[in-house]
Amino acid sequence: MEELEGKDPTVERFRDIGEHALFPVEQPCWISKVVGDTQQYADPNGGAEGENISFAVNIIKSLRWPGAMTVSKGGKCTSVYVGHGMKKGDPSYNPIEPPTVQEDPEEEEEKPEPNPLTEPPIQDEEDTIQEDPEADEQ
Predict the structure, then answer these.
(1) CA 11 → CA 22, 25, 63, distances in Å?
(2) Distance of CA 1 to CAs 5, 9, 11, 13, 54, Å?
(3) CA-CA distance, 48 to 133, in Å (whole number)?
(4) How much is the average pLDDT of 83-104?
């Protein structure tokens, strides 16, 4: 267990961005930048005297999880993730095709219908009713 713990140590999930481990090339795991109008303006809603507001947006982008971003403005923030659920640098997961469950059975050739394929020959109509001679005697 100690060997496994040494290879994959447990770390606090929610910690300061600066405490995250760097990538092997000494590159940070996060990029933070401010975009938009950074000019300070007087609060148009008549906030506390001397308070200014800015219309800039702070964007924090994860380099470890490509597609993960957090956007913050005016004390409110939201996180968005659009990606494949794989960390940068991890081997991609390509599942192989599963083995065949069962082979399909051989298809049987169609059989003719129970009706004959040709019409039976037409016989001359003969009197097929034979009278029973004993029936007449009675």
Answers:
(1) 14, 21, 18
(2) 6, 11, 16, 21, 52
(3) 132
(4) 78
Chain segment 52-76, per-residue pLDDT in tens: 888 899 999 988 888 999 999 888 9
Backbone angles phi, psi at 64, to 5 degrees: -75, -35
Q: Copy the structure tokens of residue 79.
A: 């996180």
pTM of the model: 0.46
Q: Name the pairing type of β-strands 52-54 and 40-42.
A: antiparallel
Average pLDDT of the segment spanning 88-115: 79
For residue 23, how many other CB atoms are within 10 A of its CB?
13
- The ranges assigned to domains in the chain are 2-81
